[in-house]
Inverse folding.
């Protein structure tokens, strides 16, 4: 695997933590988005 400066590798458990953070964050802002962009 080619690595570019600033890139780093994550193990599956770390990817799961990142994915959970993304889902939690999206769930927090989704109501505001739906209000701002009805049917969007």
């Amino acid at each position: 695997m080619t690595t570019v400066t600033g890139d780093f590798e994550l193990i599956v458990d770390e990817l799961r933590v990142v994915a959970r953070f993304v889902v939690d964050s999206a769930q927090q802002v989704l109501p505001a988005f739906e209000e701002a962009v009805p049917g969007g």
